[in-house]
Amino acid sequence: MCHATPMDDYQDVNRRWWDEAAAVHAASPDYAAARFAEDPDYLSGVVRFDLPRLGDVRGLDGVHLQCHIGTDTVSLARLGARMVGLDFSQAAVEEARRLATWAGVDATFVAGDVSEAPEVLGKSRFDLVYTGMGALNWLPDIRRWAQVVADLLRPGGRLFLREGHPVLFALDDERSDGLLVLEHSYFEHEEPLTTDEDGTYVETEHVFTNTVAHEWNHGLGEIVTAVLDAGMELSMLEEHDSIRWEALPGQMEDIGDGELRLSDRPRRLPHTFTLQARYPA
User: Fold this and answer.
1) Is the Cα torsion angle 146, 149, 150, 151 positive or negative in sign?
2) Could you tell me what percent of the chain has a pLDDT over 90?
3) Integer angstrom CA distances of residue 194 from 185, 189, 206, 214, 215
4) Can you tell me the distance from the alpha carbon of 129 to that of 141, in angstroms, rounded to the nearest whole number?
5) CA–CA dist 254, 98 (Å, integer)
6) Of 97, 103, 101, the residue nearest 79 (C-alpha)
7) For the chain, what are the domain ranges?
């Protein structure tokens, strides 16, 4: 008889959390799903932030890994890329398809685990592999992820990633004294950080029934090294002093366009980073 491994258990627990979150997030003003139907030029805040770095994506075959409800995927399609979104939550995929219909955008959404993306979608198929914020922390093995990206890319294709900074993820986010204290692992560790909360990171009155979630941090050096070891060439790495959610409750200020940063001396803390790498032709 085949028994589930602990990693299988973590995956199942996280999938149940994201299945419940999908409809909640789609209805939340934080994701602004209605704006996509109302304004044919509207783009997600995550994509807008990185427009100067993203460059021209018109005519590219792109895949958005861990696409959730598809706001970034639809935004990239509006910029002219032929987009596929992949997410392990069937509920999220259904919300993404609905969003694309509302937005009048031709994008394909597929349910599948990111670790199996090359088998599900096809190897060497894409010019652009895109990953937005709040994605890598749900993956236990950053080296496996980087190899998936390399397998998906055509020669000359590129990875584009904006993500929460691992220093931020290592902080104690429950302090009320304003101190920045490293409480959690900065480096990748086999055992996850497990949380048990009945809410989510968007504005909602929904009380979750699936409250447990498992996350893993990955150091910036680990991420870069994994990308390089998978055969890609780093072409950009920028750190930023803002993020798109209140990562440190009570300690952050809104600086416009949905970006928040530490209220007190924000230069102390890298909030996010943008990384780009190319797969050699």
Assistant:
1) positive
2) 85
3) 12, 12, 21, 5, 6
4) 18
5) 30
6) 103
7) 6-278
Tell me the pairing of strands 193-196 and 212-215. Answer: antiparallel
Pairing of strands 126-131, 108-111: unpaired
Summarised one tens digit per residue, pLDDT across range 159-168 is 999 999 999 9
Cα–Cα distance for residue pair 267/258, rounded to 1 Å: 19
Q: Cβ of 100: how many Cβ atoms within 10 Å?
A: 21
Partner residues linked to 83 by β-bridges: 62
Residue type present at position 191: E
> Which amino acid, 234?
L
Sequence-ordered strand ranges (E) for the chain: 61-65, 82-87, 108-111, 126-131, 153-164, 193-196, 212-215, 233-240, 252-256, 259-262, 272-278
Tokens of 194: 């497990």
Q: Which of 166, 165, 216 is nearest to 10 (CA)?
A: 216
Residue 7 has pLDDT above 70, yes or no: no
- In sequence order, the 6+-apart residues with CB closer than 8 A to the CB of 141 are 188
The answer to whether 156 touches 237, Cβ cutoff 8 Å, is no
Q: Which CATH class is domain 6-278?
A: alpha beta
DSSP at 76: H
Phi, psi values for residue 51, rounded to 5°:
-55, -45
pLDDT digits (tens, 9 = 90+) for 90-128: 999 999 999 999 999 999 999 999 999 999 999 999 999
State the burial class of residue 40 (Cβ atoms within 10 Å of its Cβ: 0-12, 13-18, 19+). Answer: exposed
Rounded to the nearest 10 degrees, the angle between the axes of helix 6-27 and helix 90-103 is 30
- Read off the tokens for 64: 């958005």
